[in-house]
Specification:
Layout lengths: L1 E4 L5 H4 L7 H23 L12 H14 L5 E5 L6 H11 L8 H4 L3 E5 L4 H11 L6 E6 L6 H18 L7 E5 L5 H9 L2 E4 L13 H9 L4 H15 L8 H14 L5 E6 L5 H15 L1 E3 L5 E4 L2 E4 L10 H6 L4 E10 L24 H18 L4 E8 L2 H22 L7 H13 L6 H11 L8
Parallel strand pairs: 2-3, 2-4, 4-5, 5-6, 7-10, 7-11, 11-12
Antiparallel strand pairs: 1-12, 8-9
Length: 466
């Protein structure tokens, strides 16, 4: 189970200027309760699609059926997607299968190797398929796109489809799973015409909220993750965050701390710092969720507000040696959320060596998990001494259940923050111009006027070259 430890974000620890005072807490509780009532009523009315996912047995069974069909013969799984169609997949895999998963033998893994191509870097794509060419007959390609027209995913898919056709002939379509809109869209049309297996992208769930849908569940289940337990964890957290008691509701508390830090204490930078390599990519998933949902130019009334705390990721202990100098002595503009683990999936013990060396002997026989925990507490203490507020999200263990809890906790907290900031949490209008400019630069029909506007902008000016 997850728990929230927030003492180090209060004025008792970091002072009135940087932490929540009793006065702040009383006022923000009223704000959070208003947001809670809005979000809870939206969920009750069925208006927030992501809140239905932990209980959607149809999606679960569709994924399980697809895994039963493709899993036994698959040595490799390639996911083509970007943003919300990739970050959740990577986060689940890293958290629950670890960094060495792909290096294990087919027998020891018990599932296919996973490659998530979340960029159009030609080296990433080319190098991946150099590795896979000899195994294409046993490779499954999962292309994830609601419309099928996202330039990055579409270009990847066209390359991979061509490769499969060359190597497998008429059987190429049997190796493709399209996760897309089930009613309309370019990928839907192609999948039906060419006979791909299909999984749904929920029509009422935005990409960054879709990790607990077939978008994230298929690759997880293919690689041996217990997705029923992950959904159970999300459902358990949903029950906790729908509790109207402020002091017992982890999302209300987390939103209160983050809101006060951002609006009242001059802390627009929100760092997530896991003390676990397995949890590091959860911070990547969080960055998209937080940035796209809360970074808005206008509020819901159309007034310019330029809202949004900036999400930052760091890794303990690695970034104690690269970032904490700035976090402690630079601008006091950050709230840090530590991710802590009580029991790691495995542990090691330092050998008894160098007993006569006082600079090393204290480490003898120590568990590495104890050292990591000490490093986290030491950083937390040092930040508090410098009046830098922090919160800890504690995992009792890293399991499918607790990962599911984490996903739903942050989705609901994001909804609360969006309501408190009075912005539309579920759109991302600023992303569209970049997409359209890409279409124009690549010569897509209908975007000629925009291409003409971009041309002088892109022309180098020797006055500004060095």
């Amino acid at each position: 189970m997850l728990s929230i430890l927030w003492k180090n974000a209060t004025s008792n620890v970091v002072g009135d200027e940087n932490g929540l005072t009793p006065f702040d807490l009383a006022n923000v509780e009223l704000e959070v309760r208003k947001a809670y009532e809005e979000v809870a009523s939206q969920i009750e009315a069925g208006k927030l699609g992501y809140a239905k996912l932990p209980h959607n047995m149809q999606y679960l069974h569709q994924v399980q059926d697809a895994v039963s069909r493709f899993g036994p013969s698959a040595t490799d799984l390639v996911v083509l997607g970007i943003g919300g169609s990739a970050l959740g997949n990577i986060a689940i895999q890293t958290a629950l299968n670890g960094a060495s998963y792909n290096l294990l033998s087919d027998r020891k893994r018990g599932g296919p190797r996973l490659f998530v191509l979340d960029n159009v870097d030609p080296c990433l794509i080319g190098d991946t398929f150099d590795v896979l060419k000899r195994r294409l007959k046993t490779t499954v390609v999962n292309v994830i796109s609601k419309s099928g027209e996202t330039a990055e995913t579409a270009s990847q898919f066209m390359i991979v489809r061509d490769m499969l056709r060359k190597y497998l002939g008429d059987d190429y379509a049997k190796r493709i799973v399209a996760t897309t809109d089930m009613e309309r869209g370019t990928l839907n049309s192609i999948a039906r015409a060419e006979g791909y297996a299909m999984l749904p992208v929920p029509p009422d769930v935005g990409g960054r909220f879709s990790v607990l849908s077939p978008v994230g569940l298929f690759s997880a289940s293919m690689c041996g993750v217990d997705i029923e337990q992950m959904l159970a964890g999300a459902a358990a957290m949903q029950n906790r965050v729908l509790n109207p008691n402020f002091n017992e509701n982890p999302a209300m508390i987390l939103a209160a701390v983050k809101y006060v830090a951002y609006k009242l204490k001059g802390k627009p930078m929100h760092v997530m710092m896991p003390y676990s390599n397995r949890l590091y990519m959860l911070a990547d998933w969080y960055r998209q969720l937080w940035a796209e949902s809360l970074g808005k130019q206008v509020d819901r009334a159309g007034n310019e507000v330029f809202a949004g705390p900036t999400p930052i990721k760091a890794l303990g202990t690695t970034d104690q040696h690269s970032q904490v100098q700035l976090y402690r002595e630079g601008p006091n503009d950050k709230l840090t959320v530590f991710l802590d683990v009580m029991k790691h999936p495995r542990d090691l013990r330092v050998p008894e060596a160098f007993a006569d060396n006082p600079g090393l002997s204290y480490l003898a026989k120590a568990k590495i998990s104890k050292l990591l925990a000490a490093e986290k507490l030491a950083t937390e203490y040092a930040m508090a001494v410098s009046k830098r507020p922090s919160v800890t999200i504690r995992f009792d263990e890293i399991t499918p259940f607790t990962v599911g809890e984490f996903f739903f906790l942050y989705e609901f907290t994001t909804s609360l923050m969006g309501s408190m900031l009075n912005v539309n949490t579920y759109d991302q209008p600023a992303v569209e111009l970049g997409k359209q400019a890409t279409f124009a630069l690549m010569g897509r029909q209908g975007y000629e006027e925009l291409a003409a506007k971009i041309k002088p902008f892109a022309r180098p000016d020797k006055r500004y070259m060095a």
